[in-house]
Each structure stands twice: as C-alpha cells, then as structure tokens.
Amino acid sequence: MPGPLSHIRVLDLSRIMAGPWSGQILADLGADVIKIERAGEGDDTRRWGPPFLKDKDGKPTKESGYYLSVNRGKRSVALDLKSEEGRAAVRALAAQSDIVLENFKAGTLERMGLGYEDLRQVNPRLIYCSITGFGLTGPMKDDAAYDFMIQAMGGLMSVTGAPDDAPGGGPQKVGVPIVDIMTGMYATIGVLAALANREKTGKGDHIDLAMLDVSVAMLANQAMNYLVSGTPPVRRGNRHPNIQPQNVYPVADGHIVLAVGNDGQFRKFAEVIGMPELADNPDFATNPGRVENLPALEAILFEALAKNGVDHWVAAFARAGVPSGPINTVDRVFEEPQVQHRKMLRDIPHPLSGDLKQVVSPLNFRNAPLSFDKAPPLLGEHTDDVLRALGLETTA
C-alpha cells in the first residue's frame, strides 16, 4: 500500500540540512521528491566527511555519512541553473509539482526567474517554501547562516551546557544540528498545512521560514520563564529549570538519567532508594520545594544512588514507574531492545555498497504504512529519466 503522500510531488531545490530534512520526511511519507543538484558538484554535504560510505570492495565512495542521513527516498536530477536549459527544466517540473522547497539566499531564485511569483505563473496551486537563515524581510535577510551560529544567536547556547563556574562550564551547542532539524520539521508542517488549505481554497501559498525564528520558538518554557519572571535563564547543565529531581546522577558503575515528573513519582522514587521519609519532608514533598531546596536534596541523592549500579537502578525504577534510563552511546542505542523492536534501523539496497543502514522515520501508519526501499540517490542518478519524462533534452 502506498504512503499517505504518494499522490504528491515535491521539487526539492534545497541543500545542506533544513530543507533536505523536510524533503526526506515527505519522501518517507510516500511523496515523489525530486532533488535538484548542481551539475558536477551536487549538494554541499556530499563532501562533508569523513566518514564516507564504503563500496562492496570496502573502498570509500564519494557518498558522505552526512549526505546519506538526510536524502533517503529522493530522485536526484543534476542541472546547471545558470543555463536557460536548467531553469527551463525547473519551470517544467514546477508545473507538475505540488510543493517546492528551497533555501537559497533571499532574492537569488527571483533573479533566476524561479521565485514564487515566477513559478506560480506556471502553477497557481504551487506551495512554495522558502527556508533562509533570517527570513525574507528584515535587516539580516541577505545574510548567510548555519545551524551553529543560529543556536548561538537564538539563545539555545545560553541555556545549554554547564554553569560558567562549573568544570567544563560555558556555552555549548546541541550535539546534532537541532535548529536545522526543527526548521525542516516546521517546513514539513507548513507545507502540509498549505496542502490542506489548498483543498479548501484551490490556491497555493508561499511560506517564509527563518532558522532564527525557529530557534526563538524553540526556547519554549525557557522563554516563558523569562517573560514571566524577568530573569534570563542560565545554563544549569543537565538540571531541569522547573522540575526536580531531573539530572544526570553518578552511580556505582557509571551514570543514569532521572526524570521525576511529579510528586507521586517522587514518592515512588523515595521508596525505591530506601528513603520513603523524603516524600513527607516539607522541603521535598512538593516540586516547588524540591526546586528551591535542590542542593540539599541532591546531596542526599548522590549518596543514596552511589550504592548500586546502572542496571540495578534502571530496573528498580522501571518496576516502580519512575522514569530513568542509561546514557547510551550511539552504538548502544541500536542495541536497545525497544529500538530494535520498533525497527528504527533498516537495510536499504544501495548501488555502491549493496546494503545501506538507515535510521528511518518514527511515523507508523496503520492504514498507509511507510516503505523504505530507496537509498539516498547518487548525484544525477535520475536526471535522464526525469527530463525525458518532461520531453526535455537530457543534457540540461
């Protein structure tokens, strides 16, 4: 059975991460995603390595791990957009597409005659999503951006990392390009909402999505804490600003994460560590009390938790319904029985390596199950097929 978006075609003019992440989500959902790449060069991320995929003989290819993480399920068409033939191919594809994703600098595609106003002339129902660092308006609209700098500018690094006076303290970025990823998620939400609206109005739309806006939106409770209190939030390491105990705790043979979310869970937690009286202590009985008296509480918890190891505590807390877990390295993530049961790692046929392991979509549909049978494409792998179907020369 085809995926829920099998009737949708996406023209993906984006590269790097944010736009391609959205394109990969849409491809996983069954859309026909045609990725336009620079002839002879391709997406910048093809060169963002090592590591590079190894072929069947164990030799490295030109397919970087970074590129492979974000382009599954697409068709690659290599074009020179500086040529009229290349631009004509994009216009022809836009006429037959539902969605355009692009992350060129503001004004670049307009100068090529491929902006929203240009392409809506050939397809009034087109949904055109422009992804930029700072948006299509404002004093920084012409500036380039990358995830790292936006994490800094948007405030995320001010609340990520250990306090300045702690060992290793100072601003830290998130370990994955989280703003790029979330921008791709917002892009997907936006184009799907526009598709739903098109069913009602018959009209397409132009979505202006900025990475900086996304980063600000992602401040979530941290932003609201500031707006309510007037006090800017600070880096607290792994400690939650509003709920306790939530932290990384040393145990006899490593560390565990505890995420006690309410007073009932704290009572169960106190029983598991053999100190039920903590739940009746007026300093710790309620969450506000635990937040206000956290240094005293953690001194008690560090001593209690040091008596046993990771496996003991994770199992004991699980039996009691107290959220906790080990801190897995990436290799151990894929050894987790639950991750294996959910089939988050799949093997997909690849023309160079034979099989390619891929972390797949977490979405599970009962009536329109997803399939993962198309590896990230080689550069220009589908150029001839796509252009021939449009009745165009295959040398564009």
TrEMBL record:
<dbReference type="Pfam" id="PF02515">
    <property type="entry name" value="CoA_transf_3"/>
</dbReference>
<keyword id="KW-0808">Transferase</keyword>
<dbReference type="InterPro" id="IPR050483">
    <property type="entry name" value="CoA-transferase_III_domain"/>
</dbReference>
<protein>
    <submittedName>
        <fullName>Succinyl-CoA:(R)-benzylsuccinate CoA-transferase subunit BbsF</fullName>
        <ecNumber>2.8.3.15</ecNumber>
    </submittedName>
</protein>
<dbReference type="InterPro" id="IPR023606">
    <property type="entry name" value="CoA-Trfase_III_dom_1_sf"/>
</dbReference>
<dbReference type="GO" id="GO:0033877">
    <property type="term" value="F:succinyl-CoA:(R)-benzylsuccinate CoA-transferase activity"/>
</dbReference>
<dbReference type="InterPro" id="IPR003673">
    <property type="entry name" value="CoA-Trfase_fam_III"/>
</dbReference>
<dbReference type="InterPro" id="IPR044855">
    <property type="entry name" value="CoA-Trfase_III_dom3_sf"/>
</dbReference>
